[in-house]
Give the backbone structure.
Amino acid sequence: MVVGASLAGMRAAESLRSEGFAGELAVVGAEGHLPYDRPPLSKQFLQGTWDRARIALRSEERLGALGLDLRLGAVAADLDPVGHLVHLSDGDELAYDGLVVATGAAPRTLPGSEGLTWVHVLRTLDDAESLRSAFAQGAQRMVVVGAGFIGSEVASSCRAMGMDVTVVEALEVPLSGVLGEQMGRVCADLHQENGVELVTGVGVVGFEEPEVGSRRIRLSDGRLLPADVAVVGIGVTPATSWLEGSGLEVANGVHCDGRLFAAPDVVVAGDVANWLDEATGDRVRIEHWTNAAEQGVLAGRNLLSGSSDAAPYDAVPYFWSDVYGSKIQVLGRPGPDDQVVVVHGSTGEKRFVALYERRGRLSGVLGFSSPRQVMSMRAQLVSQARFDEALAAFT
Ligand SMILES: Cc1cc2nc3c(=O)[nH]c(=O)nc-3n(C[C@H](O)[C@H](O)[C@H](O)COP(=O)(O)OP(=O)(O)OC[C@H]3O[C@@H](n4cnc5c(N)ncnc54)[C@H](O)[C@@H]3O)c2cc1C
């Protein structure tokens, strides 16, 4: 059985089938929609250039060929790993021999935003459609809270639609906690060069609607930002509440080993997985598309082979983001305190590649609109190359 009918869960189901599992395969998903892809929600779908059909994860024909017991709109409420049972919130219970946990993550919210129809988050198709209907009703002033990748993409999409956009970020330099200060400043410039007002180093302390049609956001420095609509993009929390009391270890995701096993018959994949990196001994959780896809495939395969024959998860992390016409790509695990060397192009032109160095090794690669050059460094990350060797290998 698979719980979570999105990217990681569907990849796991496909992998179970392609590895020869011909038994009953239930896939339980809380959302009522057929599985769809999330990245376009903040990009083409939000801008209205792609429709629902375009973001389907698989065609209905391909889904049908998998022979799944696809239970959409069904919420797993509780796991009994001893009895091998998943209880659904509607009272149904499903037995399993092997279980894939792929419940992803849910957006964090800010206190005071509960019940306000003009303050949105963006995780699901329903969230994106609700935002689109606010746009259709003529929203012009958008405030985005959080200048991470999702917030930046929402800002970029809203600018592309001609809206006035303000981005509020608690850090002094956006994304500096991920990419370091130097590259965070490049991301800040990108907002400003595209006509977005970027307010940094302040928090949001309230959402106010003093009278009908008058909406504003109160900042920690006392400023008030008028808004028609707001999106809060301040990160996500792994969806693990249904596993409380199950005996599985849950802390910032579901703990699993380097082969994705949380128990002998339970594997974990995607945004919800907190796995042990066997090479470094670190616990890792990643919230990106490629990780969810690759872990889903491996989780299905490992569940079938059993833990003694299972392969470790050792993929090089990768993600991309599309903002203001720039394709931002990150390979590896750059850290905020790493040394950064620009090896191609120029940051001013927003077309460049930067290599990150930590303890003499290549730790990550950041590219703006330079996909070929970024991907050419993959082998260096796989082999954990010395930084001087990586520099010499850069083409
Ligand atoms: C707007 C947006 C844009 C993105 N853009 C990019 C991008 O450009 N590049 C990139 O690398 N990544 C991007 N991502 C991240 C990427 O989409 C995620 O990493 C990926 O979707 C994770 O897949 P997942 O299957 O692990 O989890 P999810 O996609 O979160 O799916 C988990 C599913 O499980 C369901 N579920 C949760 N709890 C239960 C329960 N108790 N019972 C039943 N079902 C349950 C949820 O409803 C959900 O459908 C983006 C994400 C968003 C939201």
Remarks:
- The pocket of flavin-adenine dinucleotide is lined by residues 3-9, 28-31, 38-39, 41-42, 75-76, 102-105, 122-123, 150, 239, 242, 270-271, 287-290, 292, 319-321 (CB under 6 Å).
- The first helix runs from residue 7 to 18.
- DSSP finds eleven helices and 27 strands in the chain.
- The chain has a mean pLDDT of 97.
